[in-house]
Amino acid sequence: MGKLSKFFCTALALTFLAPEYVYAQTPAKKLFGNRPLPAALKPAAHGFYTKGCLSGGVAIPVDGPNWQAMRLSRNRRWGHPELIGIIEKLSYKAKKDGWNGLLVGDISQPRGGPMLTGHRSHQMGLDADLWLTPMPDKRMTYKERENTSAISVLKNGTNFVDQSRWTRSHTMLLYHAASFPQIERVLVHPGIKKQLCDTVKGNRKWLSKIRPTWGHHYHFHLRMGCPSGSPDCKRQNATPTKTGCSDGSLDWWFNVEFAPKKKPAKPVKKKPRRELTVSDLPNACQLVLNANAPTLEAATHKPIAAAFVAPEIKLPKYSAANVLRGKPIEASKSKGTPVSSLNASQSAAGFNYVPQGPIPIPTLRPFVQ
Ligand SMILES: [Zn+2]
User: Fold this and answer.
1) Is the pLDDT of residue 325 over 90?
2) Taking CA 366 as the corner, what is the angle to CA 107 and CA 103, rounded to the nearest 5 degrees?
3) Which of 198, 200, 265, 268 is deepest in the core (most CB within 10 A)?
4) For residue 15, how far is its CA from the centre of ligand 1 (angstroms)?
């Protein structure tokens, strides 16, 4: 082949390969963050919690008898059908033990995958953030669900639970969450784990699933194991059998991680993490991205209490730009209305709490959440 024709062949090959190459190198969050509906495929979790995607995702309804989904603009109320079913059952169980209802935070994007903002995990539809603030009595409007803040359960400026804020129904909520056999981890702030270690009497076996981690004092994190029918779902390390209350692992947080640290002479520069691309994810995720979508109605979980009706919320068209502008759930002095202010009775009792001043609590995301 002559030099010139070789050049043309290469150029021709590149013309054909380029779009696919570019596609494979695009940050996966941009592709997954732009799919407003799930992949109409058999339900399956692919990959790992921090590197994966979801087939056949279903949405938890915006309202249920004992729950309200929050931050609707993010469109992250999607999960593996089994996880959505568990959240619903948890809402009924917790209610019986005095929890007014769940405020459902981020689960996954419709097709899972890396997200436009926050979270390294939540990629397979097997992780869910549930607020540590009970649902108010009223049904919140779309706007209230965007702007209302959760309430930290920690005592202001400490790493310990505020005893005036913690109730038996908080403990029972976590107990019920950990009691589902499919749930392998319940992630909470170390202060919360300590509260449970110090106060739970009788059956303490479930405490082994309660795992201390950074953040997670405004919400807790429910993590399910790989569901059946998901052959390329990679399991996480097995849950330990011990409670983790007295083996030193919990003490480490308070004695080492939270201990005042000397500032290093030179500030350590952290390398920015490389963005995940589609080629980093399991092969199935390309099919997931390209699969047809069902209608929102067809892909919404049908609650057990079929007769329940709530005031209808008109959902605006999904926009990735809105997600980037959204508010985090944490309360701050200037932003957000604490959810308790929506309950007249609670705010009258002085429950209207907004953390003040600097709070020495790490809210960074851990490497594997
Ligand atoms: Zn989470």
Assistant:
1) no
2) 30
3) 200
4) 42
